[in-house]
Design a protein that fits this description.
Largest sheet of chain B: 6 strands, antiparallel
Strand content of chain C: 5-15%
Number of strands of chain C: 13
Structural class of chain B: alpha+beta
Shape of chain B: elongated
Distance between the termini of chain C: 54 Å
Largest sheet of chain C: 11 strands, mixed
Number of helices of chain B: 3
Chains: A alpha/beta (483), B alpha+beta (181), C alpha/beta (596)
Helix content of chain B: 25-40%
Radius of gyration of chain C: 38 Å
Number of domains of chain B: 2
Number of domains of chain C: 2
Shape of chain C: elongated
Helix content of chain C: 40-55%
Oligomer: heterotrimer
């Protein structure tokens, strides 16, 4: 593996060769990385992981790194596309199995991923989300190819039921030789360390962020004479929509001036629709359906209270957005939520209808008495809590640290797998790792690395994007030719 | 007229032949290597040996004649429909672009695209089988919207040259196109 | 800019003279159509061109001069240049060719003809002296491409995709090549001037060589007019009969829409109406449509007569009739045995005995009825076949449609069984699905088209669950009957589907277009292809334009006559779903078809 990297270093552009030579020099922190973000979840799919990857990539590009994103094909969106600032996205044609996650066989994604890693001169592979099979595949292959790996976990898991036992085992295998793991909150870190039996020292906490300029308060949008509760989340079980269905009739009976504004779409929408019809609350509960990210602020500023009913959450971006728009936040006390906001900005309740109702009642009472802080003061406090630049800086440090570490060669990797993951699972996955290595050797024999064309850089130290921003090559939407 | 050696995406050597007919008319021909006798022999022998093995156990002579027929028909099919001997691109300034590919049997498929329909020639990236490759393609204009692209015509589809070869063709194509527009 | 000159190949060796053709506006290209030789009187040339312009509707003009110097002709240069003042044009081409050389030399003079410069190496160059810019330092090089074309082929060929009717003035003008093809095709009157005519003008261009054949064609055209009138008269009588009120009453109307013979009859009537219209076909598509219909009609009738000659030789009809009745009998016997098997324990399955017996007896009675019906019919079958065979003289398609109808009538019992089985099965499936919802405390909301939750009474739940259980346990028996009869039905449907497909195939296959593609490939052009003629260094670029014929598959696609089978039909998945929920399937063409 070391040999392969040396060959690659010789082939690269002169400045990159300088960088390669300076690996051992003290100026390590100046080094620019070629980062490959891998996840099943990326735009046009919407959600927290997607915007995290996008924002982080943009900030890293701004810092002069080269970033490419790899995800699976979404419907007709296949092939190679460019986003803002030359962020290159590979939509690989892999079969989607369930919930936008690809099917994994541990092997079939290797040829395409290898092609991406080789042609883009990737040095760090950064995988996101433990739900994403593609991210785990990419970690596995990257380790086989001798690349440094980082993993970001965005969600919490249980320990009790059969499915979590299995997923936790897989996570253990996947993370046991990953160089570094990033979690979004301390709760999440604790959870991940326990689940994957990790050494806590290689786990960092870097919270998510919001763009504060996008979420500014505007009290003039609020309607006088009524109190509006805003809920913005996907309407799924994990987000506690059944709780919401219990809260709505109870509070609406007590407070005739209470209105609900619910944005989002999902299988649990029918629960809310039935509640609305049963209690005839059509004028007071508005279901807005799926919202685009740019419309979220327009909905948030119409409300007084932001309600979050999640049953499990690693780091809740929605409540930060709500607070940034100057709303009073009421949330369940689950996962990493208590860490996110200072205590006086958030009212925490137990995840039950009664407790949430009580919490909402107190906030409504505060509102009526006028003892809540003004929206602009809340915004001023939240504004500098979480910014993407900060996240990018901290992530960059992780990359610097990872780049200094060595990637385990195959023999030590096998030993570690067997020592770390138990005799049965460890042996199975050690066998799979050997097969993966042999498959890689076969691919290298079929299509040698030097036959692959090196991709034209759009970003990074030699990026062509800014210099030729008007060049016609990049402007066209990329189409794919599948034969 | 000049010949240069390049390789295609799987590392096989191909040759690019640029012919300058005049300052605004150029022809590029990418030729793949010919059908190698060795390969033909290997395939033929494999089929015949298999047929002989079947014949040995079943004693049906029709198997042998069938094998001969299969190799002949397979060979004809291969050189007539599969094996592309060379592909050429004729760029005539202000008239259009002609794309033709000729098979090993001499069959030739030609399409001519008028200049008024062409928006541009670009190098694009695509996922092909289990690789990500660069390819050259012609963008066609949408007649209703002059700025939109209605479809894409990939060039050198069967020989698939590597980037350095494509860049060479791309540059001289752009030279002609920019003159005539 | 590059100037394109489309030059006919037949004028390569023409004597010196004037080039007649057309400038294509907006594209910087000229189409040369003919060469008018010396000597001529300029006034006559002008009159001739005006006359031609009126006849063809093409903006013809004198493009320039052509010179092919022969021995002893010197000093033409100045004379040719003077000609441009006689025929004032914006640009004046002066094309010349030297003996022994293949390349042409072209000079272009602008309107005022102030300055024409020719490069030393014969390269045609015009240096435009822009009076406004003084001494014209800006050298606007004008290059020339000669595109040689074969005038006859270009004139006769039709560029695809064909244009529909009038050109919409709002959209873009047609492309350069299309304009060029149109120009050549429209200037047919120009080509009528024979080279042996003793007129005042002599010219070189493509000339038809088969005058005699074209006279015969004209005579034939005249002869078809009374024939068309006769057919129209017959058709009007036929449509009058068809429109009599009796036929529009419900049972007859319904029957005739389902019998494929009647469908075929109305279809053929429509075809004949198209063919017999006395107006000549306007436009290429209509002409091709007519020709295709005529050719497929003739082929159809020829095949039908072949079939007839086979049927009535050696008494094949009675042989067929004698085998048909035993076959029907045999089928009924087999069905009876199948039912007996189903009433026992088929394939070792344990059925609900009571329901099984009821269903089995019901079907057995049907078969009994059917057998007696067949025996009643048997003396007449030979007669029916004999007269039915006569329909083959109308075409093979009629015979096939009749066969399909007869099969449908002879397997009516299978159809009945299938319908009973399917209805029963369908009912059970619907009942089960709604009771399953009740079981889960849900119900189907018809207004909102979705499943709502609903709270039921205890009684309702009790009855519902009871019914659900009963239906669930009776389902296998019904499902087995349904399965067996559906398979039988599918066999029949498959056979009828094949017959319908072959009828459709004969009706819609574009035989004429395909024949044209094989014998005269240039008539249907997909586009053009260019090849570089070997050029001498220094002269302008010479290209040879050839016509790229349409692909066979495209010909079939474009010219097939539209029939029912061209419409989108159900996919396989939809068919399987229909079979699964027990909806009825039909072989009729406008419903789903099982075979493709």
């Amino acid at each position: 593996m070391g040999q392969r990297r040396k060959v690659a270093a010789v082939n690269t552009h002169p400045s990159q060769r300088d960088i390669g030579a300076s690996t051992d020099a003290p100026r390590v922190h100046n080094r620019k990385h070629n980062i490959c973000m891998v996840s099943d979840f990326f735009y046009p799919n919407m959600g927290g992981v997607e915007s995290h990857i996008y924002q982080l990539s943009q900030c890293l590009i701004e810092k002069g790194h080269k970033v490419v994103v790899v995800t699976h094909a979404y419907d007709k969106r296949k092939g190679v596309r460019y986003l803002t600032n030359g962020l290159k996205v590979y939509y690989l044609p892999l079969q989607v199995m369930y919930n936008q996650s690809t099917a994994t066989t541990c092997f079939h994604s290797l040829p395409l991923l290898r092609c991406v890693f080789v042609r883009e001169h990737i040095t760090v592979v950064h995988a996101h989300s433990s739900f994403s099979a593609m991210a785990h595949d990419a970690l596995f292959h990257a380790k086989t190819m001798g690349l440094n790996t980082v993993f970001t976990d965005h969600s919490l898991f249980g320990f009790a039921d059969v499915s979590s036992v299995l997923t936790n085992k897989l996570l253990t295998v996947s993370l046991c030789d990953t160089n570094h793991i990033v979690c979004v909150s301390y709760t999440s870190k604790e959870n991940t360390v326990l689940r994957a039996a990790l050494n806590p020292e290689i786990v960092s906490v870097i919270p998510n962020a919001v763009d504060p300029t996008d979420f500014t308060p505007d009290p003039s949008q609020r309607q006088d004479g009524r109190i509006t509760i805003v809920v913005i989340s996907r309407l799924v079980y994990r987000k506690g929509i059944d709780l919401l269905g219990g809260i709505i009739p109870e509070l609406c009976l007590k407070h005739p001036d209470l209105h609900f504004l619910i944005g989002g779409e999902g299988p649990k929408r029918i629960v809310l629709e039935e509640v609305r019809e049963k209690y005839q609350l059509h004028d007071r509960v508005r279901l807005l359906g799926a919202l685009e990210h740019k419309d979220v602020r327009g909905v948030l500023v119409q409300g007084h209270i932001f309600l979050n009913t999640s049953l499990t959450e690693a780091f809740c971006m929605a409540i930060v957005e709500g607070a940034s728009c100057g709303l009073q936040v009421v949330s369940t006390r689950v996962g990493g939520i208590p860490e996110v906001l200072p205590e006086d900005l958030i009212t925490l309740c137990e995840p039950s209808v009664r407790s949430l109702c009580a919490g909402l009642e107190t906030v409504i009472a505060q509102h009526r008495s006028g003892s809540v802080p003004s929206p602009s003061s809340i915004h001023a406090r939240v504004r500098n809590l979480y910014t993407w630049r900060n996240v990018a800086e901290r992530t960059e440090k992780v990359y610097d640290r990872v780049a200094r570490e060595e990637v385990l060669p195959l023999d030590r990797r096998l030993r570690r797998l067997r020592a770390h993951c138990g005799p049965v699972a460890g042996s199975i996955f050690a066998f799979i790792a050997v097969l993966d290595f042999l498959f890689l050797v076969l691919l290298q024999w079929l299509v040698p690395d030097q036959v692959m064309d090196i991709a034209v850089d759009a970003t990074g130290p030699l990026g062509l994007w800014r210099r030729e921003a008007t060049s016609k090559r990049e402007g066209y939407s990329k189409q794919q030719e599948t034969q | 007229m000049e010949d240069e050696a390049f390789t295609d995406i799987s590392g096989k050597p191909i040759t690019l032949d640029c012919q300058n007919h005049s300052s605004f008319c150029r022809e590029f021909t990418v030729s793949s290597p010919k059908v190698s006798i060795g390969k033909v022999m290997v395939y033929t022998c494999a089929v015949w040996l298999f047929a002989y093995a079947v014949f040995f156990f079943t004693q049906i002579t029709a198997v042998l004649s069938g094998a001969i027929l299969i190799t002949l028909v397979g060979m004809m099919f291969h050189i007539h429909f599969v094996k592309v001997d060379h592909e050429s691109l004729l760029v005539i300034g202000s008239l259009g672009i002609q794309v033709s590919s000729s098979y090993a049997s001499g069959r030739e498929i030609t399409t001519f695209i008028e200049m008024s329909k062409i928006k541009d020639i670009i190098i694009n990236e695509a996922i092909y089988m289990h690789q990500i490759i660069y390819y050259l393609c012609v963008l066609l204009k949408d007649p209703s919207e002059p700025n939109a692209v209605s479809s894409v015509v990939p060039l050198f589809q069967s020989s698939k040259p590597r980037l350095n070869c494509l860049v060479k063709v791309y540059k001289s194509c752009q030279e002609i196109l920019s003159k005539s527009q | 800019m590059v100037l394109k000159v489309f030059f006919p190949q037949c004028c390569n060796r023409a004597d010196s003279g004037l080039l007649v053709g057309r400038w294509i506006t907006g594209h910087d290209s000229a189409v040369v159509l003919a060469v008018i030789h010396y000597p001529f009187i300029p006034g006559q040339v002008k009159r001739y061109i005006q006359q031609m312009q009126a006849q063809s509707g093409v903006e013809l003009s004198v493009l320039g001069s052509w010179s092919l110097p022969k021995e002893g002709q010197e000093g033409m240069e100045s004379f040719l240049r003077d000609l441009s003042t006689i025929f004032p044009q914006e640009r004046w081409l002066q094309i010349s060719r030297e003996i022994g050389k293949t390349g042409f030399i072209c000079e272009i003079m602008s309107q005022n003809g102030k300055k024409v410069q020719q490069e030393a190496k014969n390269k045609s160059v015009e240096e435009e002296k822009d009076t406004g810019l003084g001494d014209g330092e800006k050298e606007d090089e004008e290059k020339v491409i000669f595109v040689h074309y074969e005038q006859r082929k270009v004139m006769l060929s039709q560029l695809h995709p064909t244009e529909t009717g009038d050109h919409d003035p709002k959209s873009e003008p047609p492309s350069e090549l299309r304009q060029m093809f149109q120009t050549v095709a429209q200037s047919k009157p120009l080509f009528f001037l024979d080279k042996y005519d003793d007129g005042p003008l002599k010219s070189t261009h493509w000339q038809s060589e088969g005058r005699e054949a074209s006279i015969i064609v004209e005579l034939l055209k005249q002869a078809t007019v009374p024939l068309c009138l006769l057919v129209t008269w017959l058709l009007s009588i036929w449509t009058w009969i068809c429109n009599i009120k009796i036929f529009s009453f419900w049972p007859l109307h319904f029957l005739s829409s389902k019998l494929s013979t009647c469908v075929q009859l109305s279809y053929r009537t429509e075809h004949m109406r198209i063919l017999s219209s006395p107006k000549p076909a306007v436009g290429h598509t209509q002409f091709m449509r007519k020709a295709n219909i005529l050719v497929s009609f003739l082929v159809d009738v020829a095949l039908g007569i072949l079939l007839m000659s086979w049927l009535y030789r050696d008494n094949h009809v009675s042989v067929l009739a004698n085998t048909l009745v035993p076959v029907a009998d045999h089928v009924a016997k087999e069905l009876e045995e199948l039912l007996q098997w189903l009433m026992g324990a088929p394939a070792g399955l344990k059925m609900n005995r009571a329901l099984d017996q009821v269903l089995g007896r019901f079907f057995l009675y049907h078969i009994h009825l059917w057998i007696s019906y067949i025996h009643l019919m048997s003396p007449f079958i030979e007669g029916i076949l004999w007269y039915g065979g006569l329909s083959a003289c109308l075409g093979l398609t009629f015979a096939l449609s009749l066969l399909s109808d007869m099969v449908a009538l002879l397997t009516f019992h299978i159809y009945c069984f299938y319908v009973y089985g399917a209805r029963l099965y369908c009912l059970k499936i619907y009942g089960l699905s709604s009771l399953w919802r009740l079981f889960r405390g849900k119900k189907w909301n018809v207004l909102r088209q979705r499943v709502d939750s609903c709270s039921y009474d205890l009684d309702q739940l009790f009855i519902g669950t009871l019914l659900f259980t009963i239906l669930l346990f009776l389902l296998p028996t019904t499902a087995l009957y349904y399965l067996v009869f559906t398979l039988l039905r599918l066999v029949v449907v498959l056979f009828q589907g094949i017959l319908h497909l072959s009828v459709d195939f004969i009706n819609s296959f574009p035989l004429f277009a395909l024949g044209l593609r094989i014998c005269r490939p240039y008539r249907l052009a997909e586009g053009v292809k260019f090849s570089v003629l070997c050029e001498e260094p220094g002269t302008a670029l010479h290209l040879l334009m050839e016509i790229n014929p349409l692909k066979g598959s495209t010909v079939v696609q474009t010219y097939r006559t539209p029939t029912y089978s061209c419409y989108p039909r159900d996919s396989w998945a939809a068919l399987i779903k229909k079979l699964f929920v027990g909806e009825l399937i039909y072989p009729w063409r406008h419903k789903t078809t099982k075979t493709d």
